[in-house]
Specification:
By secondary structure, the chain is of the alpha/beta class. Helix content is 37%, strand content 19%. It has a single domain, classed as 3-Layer(aba) Sandwich (Rossmann fold), CATH 3.40.50. Strands 1, 2, 3, 4, 5 and 6 form a six-stranded parallel sheet that branches. 39% of the residues are buried. Bound molecules: flavin mononucleotide.
Length: 166
């Protein structure tokens, strides 16, 4: 048995207790909340989650149907993912109502945005970012946009986005 097997070295706390407490303090809880119709944004969300884990964060990956405004304060940071739908808009039937209900809790919240699009110029993401800033959210990094299915570079960018939130 080594010198530090039983006690945390600098405080002398029992090791198992200190390890558990410190882990809870150190690990950021990050939610990844997305909507995806044909799987492109879902693939991005999986890479975002991977990035959180790689940086030592605790990740909670869920669809927008599994998330609601009452859960906003349960996470240190949130990645929101939604493709461009309608005409350069967020998906209107599930994602947008969920996101609208979260708006009042966005102030000072650390968030990041991602999503896939098709033929457009990324206008939906621009207006989504504007809305988040107006609500006082802290966008911790550039949003990640992929054209249809994400390529390798897109997936790496998604991982980096997750890492920035962890
Ligand atoms: C009803 C509908 C509306 C769309 N509107 C836009 C749009 O305004 N601008 C754009 O760039 N892409 C648009 N797209 C393309 C999607 O954003 C694109 O296919 C994306 O990869 C879908 O992501 P998902 O697989 O996560 O659902 C639209 C697709 C659908 C089905």
């Amino acid at each position: 048995m080594g010198l530090y097997d039983d006690f945390w070295p600098d405080t002398g706390e029992p090791w198992e207790y200190a390890k558990k407490e410190r882990k809870e303090i150190i690990m950021a809880k990050v939610a990844v909340v997305y909507w995806s119709g044909t799987g492109n944004t879902e693939t991005m969300a999986a890479s975002v989650a991977e990035g959180v884990k790689e940086k030592g964060g605790q990740v909670f990956l869920m669809t927008c149907g599994e998330f609601d405004a009452s859960m906003m304060d349960s996470y240190d940071a949130i990645a929101f993912g939604c493709p461009s739908m309608g005409s350069e808009q967020l998906e209107e039937s599930e994602f947008e109502p969920m996101f609208d209900s979260c708006k009042s809790s966005l102030k000072d919240k650390r968030i990041a945005l991602f999503g896939s699009h098709g033929w457009g110029s990324g206008e939906w993401m621009q207006s989504w970012e504007d809305t988040c800033r107006e609500e006082g959210a802290v966008l911790v990094c550039d949003s990640v946009i992929c054209n249809e299915a994400p390529d390798e570079e897109g997936l790496e960018n998604c991982k980096a986005l997750g890492g920035a939130l962890a």
